[in-house]
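ARCHIVE CARD
CATEGORY: sequence design from structure
SOURCE FIELD: tokenized fold
FIELD CONTENT:
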């Protein structure tokens, strides 16, 4: 009876207000993390200390450094370029020491992908972040032709290359290049060169194929440029895990070769020289160059050869 009366009296003091046990969720702003909780801890505190205050990259990737004077937080990469705090202008050691306590906390948090502003809703720990962000479909691609040209979504890159740079770019790992009236073109290259450039867009990489005709030779070179985010640039070796299977084909000649593809440089050349029998042919026929990009595993190369 006493308990009932007590509750009744309390309710009479607050006739128009409820007493919720949990505060209602706050509405997150447009710039807030797309997939995270909207409580004040996540929306304000974690957002402030989970990414570098200068480059806005996640601190899980490159570690937090803290200003000893004002407590400003930034990443290790930005710290290497700073002699003064970006906020209080206090003098810093060069570079500032990483904050290990904050690093341990950040590594265990579930934080948004670096592409959350572009629509990715994944929440990641330090362990899962690197693999996800290198494969994230919301990542933007760097133009492989001109440094600093632009960054665009992967699905728009082909259109950009054709409109802006007038280069054929297709989403595929294989292509067939047809060169018509080949003998006429070949004879003209005794004193000059004819070049073709085509790009294959595959697995967030640009495989740039260069075909060069000169002095009765045809040479094909292939290089790879990784277009998306790379967590550790130093881990990218000169040689990639890809190879190119190249076939030269005409009525009189068919030859195949495989070359290992290098990163950011044209690799070992695939080359063929046209003999006198072909050159004296009455028909000015076309040639076809087949290029197939695959993993450089030896078994896969043998399989591709047998299928072709």
């Amino acid at each position: 009876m006493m308990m009932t009366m007590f509750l009744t009296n309390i309710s009479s003091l607050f006739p128009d207000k409820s007493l919720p046990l949990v505060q209602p969720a706050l509405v997150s702003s447009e710039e807030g993390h797309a997939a995270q909780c909207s409580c004040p801890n996540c929306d304000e505190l974690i957002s402030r200390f989970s990414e570098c205050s200068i480059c806005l990259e996640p601190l899980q990737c490159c570690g937090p450094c803290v200003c000893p004077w004002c407590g400003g937080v930034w990443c290790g990469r930005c710290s290497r370029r700073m002699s003064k705090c970006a906020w209080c202008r206090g003098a810093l050691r060069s570079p500032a020491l990483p904050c290990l306590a904050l690093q341990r906390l950040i590594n265990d948090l579930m934080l948004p992908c670096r592409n959350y502003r572009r629509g990715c809703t994944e929440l990641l720990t330090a362990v899962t972040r690197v693999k996800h962000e290198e494969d994230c479909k919301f990542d933007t691609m760097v133009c492989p032709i001109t440094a600093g040209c632009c960054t665009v979504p992967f699905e728009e890159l082909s259109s950009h290359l054709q409109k802006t740079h007038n280069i054929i770019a297709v989403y595929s790992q294989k292509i067939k290049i047809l060169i018509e009236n080949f003998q006429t073109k070949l004879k003209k290259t005794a004193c000059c060169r004819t070049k073709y450039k085509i790009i294959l867009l595959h697995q967030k990489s640009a495989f740039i194929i260069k075909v060069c005709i000169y002095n009765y030779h045809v040479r094909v070179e292939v290089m790879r440029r990784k277009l998306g985010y790379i967590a550790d640039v130093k881990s990218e070796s000169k040689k990639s895990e890809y190879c190119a299977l190249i076939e030269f084909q005409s009525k009189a000649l068919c030859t195949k070769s495989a070359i290992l593809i290098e990163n950011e440089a044209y690799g070992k050349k695939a080359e063929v020289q046209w003999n006198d029998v072909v050159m004296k042919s009455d028909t000015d026929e076309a040639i076809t160059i087949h290029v197939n990009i695959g993993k450089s595993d030896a078994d896969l190369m043998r399989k591709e050869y047998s299928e072709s």
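CARD ANNOTATION: Residues 40-135 form a domain with the Herpes Virus-1 fold (CATH 3.30.40.10). The chain has two domains: 40-135, 142-307.
SHELF: design records, drawer C
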